[in-house]
Structure formats: structure tokens, C-alpha cells
Amino acid sequence: MTSVLQAQALGKKYGRRWALRECTVDIPAGHVVGLVGPNGAGKTTLLKLAGGQLEPTAGGITVLGGRPAAGPAQLAKVGFVAQDTPVYAGLTVAEHLRLGARLNPRWDDALARERIARLGLAPDQRAGRLSGGQRAQLALTLGLAKRPELLILDEPVASLDPLARREFLQGLMEATVEHAFSVVLSSHLVSDLERICDFLIVLADSRVRVAGEVERLLACHHRLSGPRRDPDRLSAGQQVISARHTDRQSTYVIRTDAPIHDPAWTVTRLSLEDLVLAYMDKRIAEDRPVALEVR
Amino acid sequence: MIWLTWRQFRGSAVMTAAVLAVLAVALGLTGPGLASSYSAGVADCVQDDTCGRFYDRFFDDHQLPFLALTLVVLLLPALAGLFWGAPLITRELEAGTHLLVWNQSITRRRWLAVKLAFVGLAAVVAACLCGLAVTWWSGPLDKSAVPEFALMAPLVFGARGIAPMGYAAFAFVLGVTVGMLVRRMLPAMALTLALFAVVQLAMPLLVRPHLMPPVTSTFELGEANVGGIGVERDEGQTLHIVLKQAVPGHPGAWVLSSELVDPSGRAVGGDGEPGGITMSTTSGPCAPSGGMEMCLAEVNRLGYRQRAAFQPLDRFWPFQWIETGIYAVLTACLTWLCFWWIRRRVS
Fold this sequence. Notes:
Chain A has helices at about 45-50, 70-75, 95-105, 110-120, 130-145, 160-180, 190-195, 215-220, 270-280, 280-285, and strands at about 5-15, 15-30, 30-35, 60-65, 80, 150-155, 180-185, 200-205, 205-215, 220-225, 240-245, 250-255, 265-270, 290-295. Chain A is an alpha/beta fold and about 300 residues long. In chain A, a hairpin with a 2-residue loop joins β1 and β2 (about 15-30). By secondary structure, chain B is of the alpha+beta class. Chains A and B meet through α2, β5, α3 and α5 of A and α1 and α4 of B.
């Protein structure tokens, strides 16, 4: 399968601080990819590197086989909806569509008009007077009507109320089904991503913690709880993601491909949120410099 | 991209065009009257040789609009830098809309090129029209102006001919560059204004006098270059001569230095300081009963002269071209910096 995004030891430094480091990740085409991590983890940096707004300090990145923002052809293939979904406050909705039509060779005017009509946006309304949800929908429409092969969305729903959030993600999902393109979207809330993503990347402390298809991730991660036990006494092939101990009891989140036979453990399945939280757990994270790739 | 640039720019463009049109109409209505009253006055004064007095009166009558128009032409480039240059990029950065437009299928360089060319050209055209209209209107006044406001004088030179175009292009690109480096609109505007003011002061003070080597020459003292003669009451032995910033035979020249020198060539005064000459002021040609001409003839006979360095009026157009060229080079350098910076640093 071809890749939409490939990063090799990718790093970006602002002054003396690394916003993203040693990021190696390969996203196959045809997925809706959720990029999740706490605020300041480097999500926006990674997406801006993919969109070509930033130049990497170290390593390399290719998007759809080309260097990000290398030229008009590359730009035409990648849609980008920036954080807070900026639009020109002084321009009307119709003028935004005209802007898109003038600046994009593959512009799908019918799609844009149909979407605007369905959303109930008045074409002659100034974008500055739209609500946050409407503005986000307008920005999404611009991104979709460009007919990209990859659409990148940076925290598109962060500032929306729950209803607008649901409508936005609903609209995005319908579009992916209809037009078959890849999506990468970031959020600091797993619940946003749970419904629509089938591929997950967890980013914490400017490093990739784990990346893989959601189903595979859930299948090979387990929570073990039982009598207190040290990590070095777990069976080989069981990799500790997080650990918690009380005087008598231990709870581990582990990753293993093999079945778990030890009768002392109570094994439970993890929810996506539990899995993400386990990878964000800092106490273990320090000893685990290498990102885990689950394929 | 041109459509988007025009759409974002049309409000201020239309407003500027309207203001310039009003100015052009006002100049067009009053210009011919001014020119005809000047030529009528000159025709009269040539007969009885009183043109000096006519010039003074004519210039005095129209000094206010003359200075106001000069100021308008001097300010226009600064306004272009302030209100068109500085916000060009910062407005996008502050609203985050650069992320919207840079993710359409158009490269950042092309976006910047269209914006710079389109709005920059508008700034140059506005300055050109305004500068040439004011140059035309002020023609009669420039011919009759006092030396301080002659065509080559620092204040007036920059408001005539083609130099305003160079200033406008430079101010605009300076605003864009500062905006790109500072990234916030108000600080960028303030910094643009400060930098432009420094450059506009440094140019006439430090650079323009040396664009061509000034002409240095000595002149006999006369009505054209002596502003006044004074005597010290108590002693009656010292004559004070105050020189004008003008040289005889070169009307409209920009006088850089003007000194009174004694027969041995030593400077005894000048550049605002009165020069003292020891001679009788109670009797002889410089006695109060004698006239100024007689007294100056005597001073000339004693060997006192004006020594002046100046740029003559016929260098006006060479200077205009050289100065516009300098600003064009500065503009090109800043434009290059803009393109380099938008590729490397702005995001």
C-alpha cells in the first residue's frame, strides 16, 4: 500500500527547544488518521511540517511522495484546515468560494455550492459574522472542494460546542466516504477521534509514542491486574506501557501479540482512551525512547 | 491571485484614488490662474527692473498652499509604507489567514510576488501622479521661491519630479519587510515610520550633497549674497556682514556652505555667523549716510569675498535620477529579503 505521509527521524526546533524530535512514522493511504496528544506535544508542528508551512530542522518528510509545498502541484494534492479555522473576515462566503476557484486547478465548484447550500450559509454573508461552527464548516468546504488526496485538519473542532463538533465531524466523515481521500486530523480529545478514526498516532513530549491501526492497537494491548509483581517478572514478549502498584496489587498495561495464559492475572480489554492515556503516562515514558510501531 | 489581491486592496485603493482625484481637480482649477498671474507679473516687472520684489510678493502670497502641497508629496510615501506596506503581511499573520491562502494551490512566493507587485505599483503610481501634478502646479512658485525653498533645497527637492516614486516604492517594501520581521501590525507601523523618517533625513543631510562633487567658487559681495550689514554702536570700527545661503549668478542653487573670507583667504564668518570686518563705520563709504552698494563696493575693493560650495540648479534632473535609482536599489534589496524570509522563516 502506498504511503500518504512518511517521516524519517523528523525534528523541528524552535530556538533551543525541540517541538518535535525523532519522529519516524509511515501512514498508509486510505485512512482517517487521528493525531492525539496533550497540548504542546508537537501535533501542530507535525501537521505544519506536512503542509509545508514549516521546514524541518532534522530528518525528512514526504507527503504523497513529494516534498511538502514544493510547488503548485504538490499544494493542490494536500488540503489543510488550520487551527481555529481562519477565514477572511471581510470577505463573504461566496467570495471565499471564488477565492478557492481562482487558486485551485482541481476546484469542485458544484461540491462547494452544494455544501454551502446544505449548511444553510447565506452566500452574501461576511465570514466575520459567521458563528464558530459555521466558520469551521466554511474552512472545511474550502478544503474539501479543492479535491485533495490528503486533507489535514489541525484541531478543527477544539473551539466548537458539542453540537457543532458533531456536525463538523459528521460532514467530514460523509465526505471521506463519498470522495475517498485520506485524512489526518489532530485533537487533544480522544472522544472526538474515536468515532471517525481508524488509524491512531499518539504524540507526547514532542515524540511519537505509538502509531498504528486502531483495531490492531486494541487487539494487542491489554490491562493486567492481579497480586503485586515487579515488571521484570512478566513473561517475555509482554512490553510494559504503564504500571501502577498498591501495597498488594499491580495493574499493568502491556502490549503483546501472544495470548496471556498466566491465571494470576485478570485480563481486560482497553478502550481507546485508556490506551492513549497509558502512552501519555510520563513515569514509564522516560525509559522508552523509541517509538513503537504497530502494524 | 490578482482577484484576491484586488479584493483585499480595493477599499483603500478607491479611497486613495478619490483623495488624489480631489487634489488633482483642485490643482487643475487653480494651476492655470497661478501661471498666468506669474507671467503677467514677470512681464510687468521686467520693464522697470523690480522682479526681485515681485518674486518676493508672489511667493509670499502663495506660500501656504505651496508648503502644504510639498508636505503632502513628502508624506504620501510614508503613508503608503504605513497603511499599505506594514499591514500587507501582518494582517494575514494576525488573523491566521496566511494559513488559509498558503494552502491553496499557489506557492508562497507567487502570492508574495503578486501582492508586492500589485500594491507596490499602486503606491508608485499614486506618488508619481501626486508628485508630477504638484511639480506642474508649483512651477511658477519654484521660479520665484526664496533660497530656503528653492527647487534644489532639501525640503522641496524630495517633493518634485520623480523622486517621490522612489520614496513610495521604498517605503512600501520597507513596511512589508518590517511587518514580516515584527509580525505584529502596530509595532510594524511604528517601526516603519521611524525607519523611513531616519532614511529620509539621512538622505539630504549625509548623502545627497555628495551625489556629485559640489561646485566651489568665490564671489564678489553684492545684493544677491549679502543678507545684511550691521555696525557695532559703541566702537564704530567693526562692520558685520551677514551672508545669505545664495550665490550670485546661480539662482535656485542649493548652497551647502557659504563663508566670508578675507584677502588672505581666511574665513572670518559665514554659515549663519556674521563676519566682522575692521573698518570705519562712521566715515567713508560705510558711513550711515552711504548706501549699501557703496559700502559693499568698498568691502570688495579691500578683497573680501564670499566662498561657497553649492549644487547648481541645472543638476536637478541628474540628482532626481540618481536619487530615484538609489531608492530603487534599496527597494530591490528589501524585496529580495522579503522573498528569502518568506521561504525560510515565516510560517
